[in-house]
Amino acid sequence: MRVLMFGWEFPPHITGGLGTACFGLTKGLVKHGTEVIFVVPKAFGDETKEGFRLVNASEVTLDFHQKESQEFWEKIKYLEIGSNLVPYLDPEEFEKLNVSDIKTGEEVKRSVFSRHFTFSGKYGPNLMEEVSRYALVASSIAQNNSFDVIHAHDWLTYPAGIAAKEITGKPLVIHVHATEFDRSGEHVNQPVYDIERRGMTEADLVITVSNLTRQIVIERYGIDPEKVITVHNAVEPVDRPGMEGVQKHVREKIVTFLGRVTYQKGPDYFVEAAYKVLQRDPNVRFVMAGSGDLLNRMIRRVAQLKISTKFHFTGFLAGQEVDTMFAMSDVYVMPSVSEPFGISPLEAMRSNVPVVISKQSGVAEVLKHALKVDFWDIDALADAIYGILHYDALRSMFVRYGKAEVDNLKWENAALNVIEVYNKAVYK
Length: 428
Fold this sequence. Notes:
Blueprint: E1 2-6, H1 17-31, E2 35-40, E3 53-56, H2 67-75, H3 91-99, H4 105-111, H5 127-143, E4 149-153, H6 158-168, E5 172-176, H7 180-184, H8 190-202, E6 205-208, H9 211-221, E7 228-230, E8 253-258, H10 267-280, E9 284-289, H11 295-304, E10 311-315, H12 320-328, E11 331-334, H13 344-350, E12 355-358, E13 371-373, H14 378-390, H15 392-407, H16 411-427
Parallel strand pairs: 1-2, 1-4, 2-3, 4-5, 5-6, 6-7, 8-9, 8-11, 9-10, 11-12, 12-13
C-alpha cells in the first residue's frame, strides 16, 4: 500500500499535537510496510525522515501551461482568514494579524502564476492564500506520483486532498484532529467550517481521533455515520536518559499546564483552581507553559488573585524543554473545554507524572489511570490536584499504572487501524 499524505507541519517544527500525531502515525505505518509520501508546505531540512519520503511543496515546479492546472485554479475560491483562528498564534502574531492589510482575491490571482510557490508553513494572516496554493501544488504532485490512497490531515490540507482526488480518481481519507467547534466554540469561522464540511463530504472515509469528535462530525457536519471511523491517537515510546537528574531548584511541588493558552484549552479554569489550592496549601507552584491569545488575560487574572509569586509563565516549550518541564512536575493538568483527543497527558504519564484531565476530552475515552473532572468544576479540579499532591498512595498508584497503560498505547497499533481504513477505501 502506498499513501500520498498531506500535512501542514512536521517535527521539529510544530505548534501543538498535530505535527506530533502526523509523525507518530507515519512511523507506525512504515513499520507495517506501508509506503508514505508525506507532503508539507515547507520543509526546513532538519525533519526526521525514518523510512518515508518527505516532499517540500515549496520546491515543486508547476507547469501552468497544463490544462489541468489552469482548470483547477479556476475552481479555487480565495477566502480571507478570520481572527478567531488565533489559537494558532502567539500574542505578537495576533497583533500583526489585526493590523495587516487585507489581500484581495484579485491580487492573489495576478501573483499566483509563478513556477514555484514559497510557503511559510505557518499560521499567518495569509493562511487561506497558502491553503489554496498548497491545493494547487497537490494536484501537480498527485499527477506525478504513483499511490493507492490519499490521506489529508486537518482542514488546512483538505483542499489539497480533494485536488489530488479530482486529478487522479484515487480514494480520499481525511483525518479530523479537531473541528472548528473545538477551536471557536459556537462562534465558528464560516469559511473554515465550509472547508471542513466539504472535505468530509468529498472524502470516501473520515477518521476521527475520538468518539467525541466522531459525534461532532456526524451531528454538526451532517456526515453519514457509516463513513466515520474512530482511531484513537497514541504516544511515541522514547528513552530520555538524564531526565532523572533534573533539578527543580524550588522546594514546593509543581503543577503544570502545557498547551496553547486559548479558549479550547481552558487555561482560565487552571488559574482559578490554582487559587483554590493555594488557599489550602501555599507550598505549591503553578506553571503555565504555552502561548496564545488568552495569555495576557491569564497574566492579569493571576495578578488580580495575588498569586503571582506562586505562578510562572514560560511561553511556548518544545522538544527537550517539554521533557525537562515534565521531569520537574508533580501533577499535569489538562482542563480543556473541548479536546478532540489530547496527546500531552500521554506524554506526561510516560514521564511518570500523574494527570488530571477534563471529561470533555477524547483521551478520557482511553485512559483509566487518570483523574477526570468536568472542565467547569473548579472545586473538583482543585480537589483532584490537592489529592495527588498530598496522598502518596494515590500518586504512586497513578504513576505506576499510568505509565504501564500509556506504554501500551503505541502508534504502530493505531497504524494498523488506519491501514484497515485504507483497505476499506481502496477495495470498497
